Predict the 3D structure of the following.
Amino acid sequence: MRTDAKICGMGHSMKRKEDPRFIRGKGNYVDDIQLPGMLYMDIVRSPHAHAKIKKIDTSAALKIPGVLAVIDGPTLEKYKLHWMPTISADTQMVLPIDEVMYVAQEVCAVIATERYIAADGADAVEVEYEPLPVIVDPLKSIAPGAPVIRKDKKDKKDNLAFHWEAGDRAATDAALEKSDVVAEQFVYVPRIHVASMETCGCVADFNSAEGKLTVYMTTQAPHAVRTVFALVAGHVGLSEERIRIVSPDIGGGFGGKVPVYPGYVIAVAASVVIGKPIKWIEDRMENLQADSFARDYHMKVRLGAKKDGTMTALSIKTIADHGYTNASANPMKYPAGLFSICTGAYPLKNAFCEVDAVYTHKPPGGVAYRCSFRVTEAVHAIERVVDVLAQKLKMDPAELRMKNFIAPERFPYKSVLGWEYDSGNYPAALKKAMDIIGYEALRKEQKEKRARGELMGIGVCSFVEIVGAGPSKDFDILGLKMFDSAEIRVHPTGKALARFGTKSQGQGHETTYAQIIAEELGIPASDIQVEEGDTDTAPYGLGTYASRSTPTSGAAASLAARKIRAKAKTLAAHLLECSEADLDWEPGRFFVKGVPGKGKTIQECAFAAYTNMPQGMEPGMEATHYYDPPNLTFPFGSYICAVDIDRGTGEVKVRRFVAIDDCGNIINPMIVQGQIHGGLAQGVGPALYEEIGYDEDGNVFGGSFLDYYVPTSLECPKWETDHTITPSPHHPFGAKGVGESATVGAPPAIANAVVDALSHLGVTHIDIPITPEKVWTLLRKAGAAE
Ligand code: CDP
């Protein structure tokens, strides 16, 4: 560490600056906002997955004292606001005119003086539906002759949202043909939900006197939302300089707060029409049933190898269920996200992957749930099939990985599917994980237990991540290039304010950004106030998701601080009456080379910037930097877990879990550890419990916390975390992102462990979530249930 505990630059486990307000209940979330004259909105939702709306009768609702208005599709149609673009440039209904496309779709909205009156009003609206045929299964939807779901799209003759592919199909097929063995596996990564603690909501406040719209909302990307609002509603007078998006404290986002949901737009329209602030806050069931989902990838994976285990080729064919519109939060050039990271940690010479995205009568989505755009699906596919291959070859899965890893000296490494991995040392991470968990001893224990009839499994996953979008030449969302920004102001007394275009949702940005600036300037991190989330004050940025904040805004913070340090140096030379070339820097202070006692602190330089600057120098001490990364960063890790299975109930217990992560240089080790702990829990959920499913009529199960099982601390083991450090060569301070690594790496580790526990019974694969019922059924079939 270059700085002491007072400055608290990089590498210090500084306690989070934001936590005192959270633990004292002093956070300021959207639902805490109260404005004079504020009204409340509740939404009437469809009970059908596909139906014609024959009539909306609002008379009973409007008779309820306090119910002021009902906004429906035809109301919005008058302003041409009944449809909106999705982040993937598809189209989505804000409110329907004649047809609903999924259970829980917004049908109309009731505005009332109180929240519960709005809810009563919503109950009193009578909607007459004519049910229509429903397509739930994406395989049926894509079959020739299936009824067209998006009849609104002129000339649409099928239900394909898009086809995307990467790699050389013919060469990969030929290489698979020539391989000694081919591990082939269907892998389904089901639809899940981010289930953040805070649901979505907003307070839309249109001030008709000023023509200014302020929206307090749960968004991870305030600037992008402002621009999209201006583009969509410019024709009704909402121009960008008159729109202010404020994203206050957010109780978890995980990608689910990137899209613009119909509720936000309806609230804005209602505020513009009625002229009063409108608050809309979803309840938990609305959040789980109607907001964008994640995953839902059906993958056929083939991995070829020589007899000795050398991997030769990988092919993945995917059917992706996108619901009734493609609302995926992916960069435009990558409709299937960064799925082509699927070759993982292995130097495959041949690979091909393709995705057919399909419409069905389900909620739209494809959010990158704690995942850099479909990386979770890609990692699950490769890391599962590597174990299938190991089983086929009767090789130890750790040994098979070690044999194949991209060698550390091959970085920067260009993958056959086009990515340039910046740096990595995969064998080191796996070796460390094996040493900590005591791999050999665990295998011995497993053997002994198996002999006694006990079920124990060991699962390995060595994942490669790809985070930090831009670079802007390849990455944009609806044309908005993906870069990010930082603005720093150092006040005369040497304290600072820093503003960012990103938005923390629990990641601790107020602390870590301050530490980055402290590292560069030597101003104590405790003296640096960090602000995000207000488009009227923060510099333009694309927001926080896909672990991009450290690779982009973190870099911007560092480079903006370096601009300030350069100015401080000129000021120090002026104050010390020497040349800049005669000055050396230590954290927080310039001093004359060879005369350490003669120097000026950064605080003295800041004061001089306002009180005693050299003639002709621009006063003040501020800098802004917009950072367009030259490449993505490629964090990685190796996870090993041990599971025990109850033969009576099929219940899986994760007994030990060792996670070795590498996110390059670490800003705050405690925060990184917290990110890993949370991410691992969000890996246990999908691996063992969580799924949003549908019956054939499109009714949802997993639509409330009664049947959407989010793990608690009881389902999680005591995490054993550690790290290796392989800095990113192109990032200003060698860091990579980390936020999502554990969510990406944990599910295949756990799935591999369960299959390993049952492998002697002939089990080669189980789709997640691996529920007790699935395991018990397998045990019964194998005659191994108790
Ligand atoms: O974009 P998001 O904040 O979700 O992800 P991130 O950039 O991976 O950062 C998550 C948290 O971990 C932030 O508070 C980062 O500053 C911190 N972090 C760190 O301390 N060191 C790293 N090398 C990477 C992230």
Notes: The chain is about 30% helix and 25% strand.
